[in-house]
Write a structure and sequence with these properties.
This protein has 220 residues and is an alpha/beta fold. It has 2 domains: 1-30; 34-219, Isochorismatase-like (Rossmann fold), CATH 3.40.50. The chain has helices at residues 2-24, 61-78, 108-111, 132-138, 151-164, 190-204, 211-219; strands at 37-42, 82-87, 117-121, 143-149, 168-177, 181-183, 186-188, 207-209. The strands form 2 sheets. The chain has a 6-stranded parallel beta sheet. The chain has a two-stranded antiparallel ribbon with strand order 6-7. The longest helix is centred in the N-terminal third of the chain and has 23 residues, at 2-24. It starts with a helix and ends with a helix.
Length: 220
């Protein structure tokens, strides 16, 4: 019974947060007007592809990368601010994401597309120790649309950080991805980890949409 009391209490707190967000961003709620979005493109770097330490498997990286490109192209077409986030480790002995290394570099499919801002981060959360909050505030953004890697780590953390800061959150489910994982907590396939993370996000934090659905919303 205590469990359900906790769930109810959490739901009430969430409803209060949403109501507060609606009060602070009435333009996103009045008459069904389109939210003021920014596209956040997280860590689309060579480290997550063949030759890197953390090759994405689920969904297929070819599929997710193509959808990331589609989202970036639509953001450009619609004039949405696009923030590319890059994981950077400055330690010359870092085993992954070492600044200047080939695996640290952004994928060509992202690097050659238009972006408005480039944010460098080290922790999983894109808001932590970056100027992302100021970037979004400068354009009066109320909704962040998230793509990139990995679903269970930097995408998940960034989405939670955004929700805690009062933003509405969208995760493009087929423009993100992850890999199989095993540790003292157990084991999960890439598909299981990707799906379970999105299910958890969809309970309170984010609206989970496909790339096609997101593109249709922008065209609607």
């Amino acid at each position: 019974m205590q469990f359900w009391y906790n769930v109810l209490e959490y739901a009430i707190c969430w409803a209060e947060r949403v109501a507060d967000d609606s009060a602070r961003h009435p333009e996103a709620n009045r008459g069904g007007l389109t939210p003021k979005r920014a596209l956040i493109v997280i860590d689309v770097q060579n480290e997550y592809f063949d030759g890197g330490a953390l090759p994405i498997t689920d969904p297929s990286p070819t599929h997710s990368l193509a959808n990331i490109g589609r989202a970036m192209d639509k953001a450009t077409e619609r004039g949405l601010p696009t923030v590319v986030v890059r994981h950077t480790e400055h330690d010359p002995d870092a085993g992954m994401f070492r600044e200047g290394s080939d695996t640290w570099r952004l994928r060509r499919e992202v690097d050659e597309r238009r972006r408005d801002h480039l944010a460098e981060k080290s922790p999983p959360g894109s808001f932590t120790d970056t100027n992302l909050t100021d970037i979004l505030a400068s354009s009066d953004i109320d909704t962040v649309s998230i793509v990139g890697y990995m679903t269970h780590m930097c995408v998940d953390t960034t989405a939670r950080e955004a929700a805690h800061r009062g933003f509405s959150v969208e995760i493009l489910s087929d423009a993100t991805g992850t890999l199989a994982l095993e540790n003292r907590g157990g084991a999960a396939t890439g598909e299981e980890l990707h799906r379970s993370t999105l299910v958890a996000q969809g309970q309170f934090f984010a609206d989970i949409v496909s790339t096609d659905e997101w593109l249709s919303q922008l065209d609607g």
